[in-house]
Structures are given as structure tokens and as C-alpha cells.
Amino acid sequence: MHDHAPASGVRGGSNRRLLSISLGITSTVFVVQVVGAILSGSLALLADAAHMLTDAAALVIALIASAVAARPANDRRTFGYQRAEVFGALANGVILLGLSLWVGVEAITRLINPAEAEVAGGLMLGVAAVGLIANAVAMWLLGAAQRTSINVRGAYLEVLGDLLGSVAVIVAAVVILLTGWLPADAIASLLIAAMIVPRAIGLLREVVSVLSEATPKGVEVDTIRAHILGTPGVVAVHDLHVWQLTRGAPVFTAHVVVDEEAYATGGAARILSDLQGCLATHFDVEHSTFQLEPADHVEHEAHA
User: Fold this and answer.
1) How many angstroms separate the CA atoms of 110 and 103, rounded?
2) Which residues contact 299 (CB under 8 A, 6 or more apart)?
3) Is 7 exposed, middle or buried (CB count within 10 Å of its CB: 0-12, 13-18, 19+)?
4) 13, 245, 248, 296: which has the fewest Cβ within 10 Å?
5) CA proximity to 287, closest of 85, 13, 82
6) What is the rounded radius of gyration, in angstroms, for the C-alpha atoms of the chain?
7) Would you list the DSSP string of the chain?
8) Which parts of the chain register pLDDT below 50?
9) What is the pLDDT of residue 129?
10) What is the pLDDT of residues 94-153, one digit of tens each?
11) Residues sharing a CB contact under 8 Å with residue 193, sequence separation 6 or more, in sequence order
12) What does the alpha-carbon distance between residue 122 and residue 36 come to, in Å, rounded to a whole number?
């Protein structure tokens, strides 16, 4: 089930517009963080900047996928290009895992072999604060759209990771300023890597669920079956399948057996309308296909 409350203002723009704005914010903060990392000598800030760069690349991927997904259906791709969003999310997840490995290795290396260079905690804190504010704005922009698009959700999760990374850098900077304990910088870098992994795995798990045509999360097949069987004129239902093209685009098919009287008197059209209206109203499934069969119809295949 989805939250259909419309977003207002700038958050109500198209997914591509929101992703473009987020890309501009991310790219700007990336440049600020790289300069800040070089001047302050902070590994955590550099790791957060690398995360920003990865997010910028991921947003580019998301924009391309969003543009491709908007292309209309044709005779070769009858569902259109909505799956392009899923492939974009797949690329985002892989990038996140690769980034976490790199940051983790660099952080451990810094802890084992501490650098002699001093870390400028004040500059580190200021740059991290800028990143925190920018990421909060980007998350706010994507917050509504990510509920219905797996592609936008991938970008949203990466911005969330950046925000948490900025928090870790701020904490490390405060520790360095108050105590002068420089390993806090490397520890913050390690924490950034640790925060990335669960989100990446969660995103990839959702991608696998979509590509394997599993039942969408939150959809109870038994409940749908009960609603169908409760429709006047319906005798039985079989070969029921529910999957999704991408987040927010569920698809449903089923063979429905109707009583002979309804079939003979032309009531099948009414039953079909009731079934489609039920799925759209109660289960948020706009794309449903039903094969109506008379009660004496003999199937030529075994059914699960």
C-alpha cells in the first residue's frame, strides 16, 4: 500500500527534476569536502567526499534510468522501460558496496600506521557541517518520491548515508578539537564504511526481489484471494500471480472461475469490472489481468 498524499512545492516535481537538484547539491558539496580534506588532512572528510562522488555518479545513473523508464511501451517491450529503474538501483547498490570496502581498508590502514600529519579539527568541523546541511536538504527533496520509485529510493539511501557520514565526521572533529586524539578521524572513516553496508544489502535485496518476480512486500496473496472469492458470481480462483515491474508498479494475473448462470446471462463483464475495481481500491494494483472461465471449463494443465 502506498501513501498517496501529494507532495507540494519543489518536492512535488518530477523524479528527474528532484534527482537533478540533488545532483547539483551533491556535486557542490563534494568539491567543498575535497578541498576541506586536503587542507585539514582528514581521512574521514576525504572518505565522506568519496562517498559524495559516488553518490553523484549514482545520481547520474538514476537520472539516465529515469529518462529511459519514461519511454513509452512498444511491441518489443510491452511493459515499457520501467525495469530500467531497477537496473539503476542495482548499479547503485554495487557502487555502495565497493565504496564501503575502500573506506574500510583506508581507515584500518590509518589506524595501523597513523599518519604524522596533523588534522585541522576546526576546518574539518566546518566542512562537515556544510555537508550535513546539504544532505538534509537533499533528503527532504527526495523524501516523498522515494516511496514510489525504487530508483529514487536508491539515491535517497545514498544521501542518507552521506548525512550519517557527516555526523560521524562532526563527532570526530569535535573529539580532535577537545582532546587532540587524532585516531578519531580514522575511526569515523571506519564507521562510515560500516553504515554503508546494511543499506546497500537492503537495496540489493529489494532489486533481487523485483527481478525474481517475488510477491511485493506488504501484499498478502491470501487476502487478495479471499476478496476475489467473495465477489458475487465467482466460484474459484487459480493460477494467481503477483509481482512488480519496479517499486510502486505491481502487476496481477489470475484465472477466475465464474458460475455458469453469470457466464450465460452476460454477467461476466460485471464480474470483471468488480474484480479490477477491488484490486485497484483495496490493494493499489492498477494493472490486473483476469481470465474468466465458466465452471465447466476443463483446464489442460495441472495447477499448483
Assistant:
1) 11
2) 238, 255, 293
3) middle
4) 296
5) 82
6) 25
7) ----PPP-GGGGS-HHHHHHHHHHHHHHHHHHHHHHHHHHT-HHHHHHHHHHHHHHHHHHHHHHHHHHHTSPP-SS-TTTTTHHHHHHHHHHHHHHHHHHHHHHHHHHHHHHS--SS---HHHHHHHHHHHHHHHHHHHHHHTTGGGT-HHHHHHHHHHHHHHHHHHHHHHHHHHHHHH--THHHHHHHHHHHHHHHHHHHHHHHHHHHHHTTPPPTT--HHHHHHHHHTSTTEEEEEEEEEEESSTT-EEEEEEEEE-HHHHHTTTHHHHHHHHHHHHHHHS---EEEEEEEETT---SS---
8) 1-8, 300-304
9) 92
10) 887 887 888 788 788 878 876 555 678 888 899 999 989 988 888 888 877 777 777 677
11) 47, 99, 100, 101, 103, 104, 107
12) 10
Grid look-up 564501503 returns: 100
Amino acid at 298: V
Amino acid code (one letter) for 3 = D
Name the maximum alpha-carbon separation found in the chain.
88
pTM of the model: 0.68
